[in-house]
Design goal:
alpha+beta; 436 residues; four-stranded antiparallel sheet; paralog of FGE (formylglycine-generating enzyme)
């Protein structure tokens, strides 16, 4: 890099002054804050692919055989972002479940054993609520510990043995409703802002606290299909190691959002511990981000692989879906398959069509493409108690193992209610790229 002698001289002067003190004036020059973390670009997150910024034609590229008319062609632009290379697997989601079990166990033990909680900060100030101390080991053979932790388990019986009370596995987190802080609801401006007794805008009122049970609903395999023998999947799909690399299902939109919040906390705590700049939060993708990633850079492609057909020149199917009338196994599996069982798209992403449909972060409206922004389009809201049922719809993309080829199209969109779990719906996370 070309550097003038003047800049070299100023650099030497700066080093001398830096040795004298960080707050010293540097020759009256504007040089920025010094001592910042030496991280010029973002480190690649494990298991994610960087999708470059770009523009594309969002919407249906082929016939609308069900006459949904909910995805007209719309040119949009999106910023760069990271996206999971595969759908979140059972084993990845199990890490979340184990974290919640461990944190709840430590809080229960902390009521009697203070070493499991951190009650003061470095300045000796009381923490309310106290933080979990992850250092002490929980010895399961300790009878005092076992008696306290029995609260998490149902009484043992001769059929199921000892089992967790999954309703006890609640993850607590908070997020800021920025639309609400601007006096908006569902994207519309309103005249009212929440203010405190002095007339100031009450920022605390925009912090939304969530308490979400996080264990997947394993009974979806039975509930979704009447008069079908799916009990083996209900009993073992999430728990058995043979299914570790299969996409997690039975997870609601709220549970998927809680997973993103936990994954963010996991990364944020690590970055703070090693004093590295904290990246953007993990979240569910917007519809536009998901579709842009699914297309793999192929303009106007009907499917993620770009062709007009669901099979290749050898006659092999390119995704896990319902290829013919009730012939589920023709593509290689009667239900879900391990993630990455088929070839990736040109961005290196697997299963952007088929296997399981995927939650997006967006609310669903048939006319959304007519009023969203053309730059990072994002139509979302947080449905509250008393809102009509239609306000609880969230957009699904990608099609699943039980769907016909129509739903595998990049531009196809449908919905499910945010508190509903299904045996054919999973998700993957994204993270906005820090940079261009």
């Amino acid at each position: 890099m070309w550097v003038t002698k003047k800049k070299v001289r100023l650099g030497l002067e700066f080093l001398i002054l830096l040795m004298a003190g960080c707050s010293a004036e540097i020759g009256g020059e504007l040089v920025g804050v010094q001592g910042r973390p030496p991280q010029s670009q973002e480190l690649p997150p494990y298991g994610m692919v960087l999708i470059p910024q770009g523009s594309f034609n969002m919407g249906m590229n082929d016939e609308d055989i069900i006459f949904a008319m909910n995805a007209p062609i719309n040119t949009v632009s999106v910023d760069a972002f990271w996206i999971d290379q595969t759908e979140i697997t059972n084993n990845e989601y199990r890490q979340f479940v184990y974290y919640v079990i461990d944190s709840i166990s430590r809080r229960l033990l902390g009521d009697q054993f203070e070493e499991f909680l951190i009650t003061e900060n470095a300045l000796g100030e009381a923490l309310d609520p106290p933080l979990v101390n992850w250092e002490p080991r929980i010895n399961p053979s300790n009878p005092e510990y076992a008696e306290i932790l029995n609260e998490l388990y149902a009484p043992a019986n001769s059929i199921t043995g000892r089992s967790l009370k999954v309703q006890k596995l609640v993850y607590e987190y908070a997020w800021i409703d920025y639309d609400k802080s601007l006096g908006r609801r569902y994207g519309r401006d309103t005249a009212e802002l929440i203010r405190d007794e002095y007339g100031n805008v009450d920022a605390a009122s925009y912090i939304i606290k969530e308490n979400t049970t996080i264990y997947p609903d394993t009974l979806v395999w039975i509930r979704d299909f009447a008069y079908a023998y799916n009990e083996p999947f209900a009993l073992r799909y999430f728990s058995h190691p043979a299914f570790d690399d299969y996409p997690v299902v039975g997870v609601t939109w709220r549970q998927a959002s809680a997973f993103c919040a936990w994954r963010t906390k996991l990364m944020r705590d690590y970055c703070n511990r090693i004093r590295r700049a904290v990246p953007q939060d993990y979240r569910l993708p917007t519809e536009a981000e998901w579709e842009y990633a699914a297309r793999g850079g192929l303009e106007g492609g009907k499917y993620p692989w770009g062709g007009l057909y669901t099979y290749d020149k050898t006659g092999c199917y390119r995704a896990n879906f319902l290829p013919q009338r009730a012939r589920y196994g023709l593509d290689g599996g009667t239900k879900t398959l391990p993630v990455g069982s088929y070839q990736p798209n040109d961005f290196g992403l697997f299963d952007m069509a088929g296997n399981v449909s995927e939650w997006t972060g967006n609310a669903y409206d048939e006319q959304a493409y007519g009023f969203v922004s053309s730059m990072n389009p994002n139509y979302r809201y947080n449905a509250q108690k008393g809102d009509p049922l239609a306000m609880r719809r969230k957009t699904l993309k990608g099609g699943s193992w039980k769907d016909i080829a129509y739903f595998l199209q990049c531009g196809a969109r449908t919905f499910e209610y945010q508190d509903t779990a299904k045996s054919y719906i999973g998700f993957r996370c994204v993270r906005t790229y820090v940079g261009k």
